[in-house]
Amino acid sequence: MYLHKIFKPKKEYELNRLGKKNDGGYLVGIQTVNESQYLISFGIRDDWSFEIDFLKKNFVKSICFDSENILDILKKKFKTDLSFFYKLNIFKIIKNLIAFYNFYKFKKKTKIIQKTISTGDLNQIISEINSDKIFLKIDIESSEYSILNEIIQNQEKIVGLVIEFHDIQKNMNILTNFIKKFKLEITHIHPNNYSELDKNGNPEIIEMSFEKNPQILGDEKIFPNALDMKNWKRGPDIEINFYE
């Protein structure tokens, strides 16, 4: 994968993995997590492992949004796994029951709202939060581009951001312009190997971490990070190269 050097982290930063192995985990500095006073998460579906790990490190006020009803997602998955093909698979049944249990535990730690995020929503949400140390996690299937300007407008209140960018070739100019305007440092970048490849063999999804006050470990960024994992465990890994 080839990206312009503007995407490359400038230093080697202290990073920890929050969230489960493979898809759903992000790399971010614990110093930034501990500095945060509020967690806003856009897009969780049936995976809130990042949010749980974040709140274990720093139990702040938090609010999570998803376009679908998470309980309905779990119920639908449970019914599917009880279908004829899976009806004798006790391990899948137990796994689903554990998912329900963990969801109700998660609901006690945060506020969950069913809502499709679009232009204007981030400004409204931040205006109702009394904090200038907000951490954002965003994975909303290409809708992230509709709120990038609002992230810029509120960047003085943001201490950290992990975000998944979709359809990056189509939106490269928008994405590059965002990076130029966003004052937070890029501390990590990772290609998502679940995504389809474009005509040049590049994936269409990348994950990025930004931090206001990252802890610097060295002058030279090492790729890949030792904590990096393929999103799709059985899929081929993707190497990032940067050009001038």
Characterize the structure shown.
By secondary structure, this protein is an alpha/beta fold. The protein has two domains: 2-67 and 115-243, Rossmann fold, CATH 3.40.50; 70-107, no CATH class. 28% of the residues lie in helices and 24% in strands. The protein has helices at 30-35, 49-57, 70-81, 90-107, 121-127, 148-153, 172-181, and strands spanning 2-4, 12-13, 16-18, 26-28, 38-42, 61-66, 111-114, 134-138, 158-165, 185-191, 206-211, 216-218, 241-243. A seven-stranded mixed beta sheet has the order 7-6-5-8-9-11-10. A two-stranded parallel sheet has the order 1-13. The protein has a two-stranded antiparallel sheet with strand order 2-12. Helix 6 links the parallel strand 8 and strand 9. Helix 3 packs antiparallel against helix 4 (90-107). The longest helix is centred in the middle third of the chain and has 18 residues, at 90-107.
Question: Can you give me a brief rundown of this structure?
Answer:
It is built from seven helices and 13 strands. It has 244 residues and is of the alpha/beta class.
Please report the first level of CATH classification, the CATH class of the largest domain: Alpha Beta
Largest sheet: 7 strands, mixed
Give me the CATH fold name of the largest domain.
Answer: Rossmann fold
DSSP summary, beta strand count: 13
Q: What is the averaged pLDDT score? A: 91
Query: Any low-confidence stretches, pLDDT <50, length ≥5?
Result: none
What is the number of helical segments per DSSP (H or I, 4+ residues)?
A: 7
Order of helices and strands: EEEEHEHEHHEHEHEHEEEE
CATH architecture annotation of the largest domain:
3-Layer(aba) Sandwich
- Derived structural class: alpha/beta
- Shape descriptor: globular
Helix content: 25-40%
Q: What is the CA-CA span between the terminal residues?
A: 14 Å
Number of domains: 2
Radius of gyration: 18 Å
- Strand arrangement within the widest β-sheet reads 7-6-5-8-9-11-10
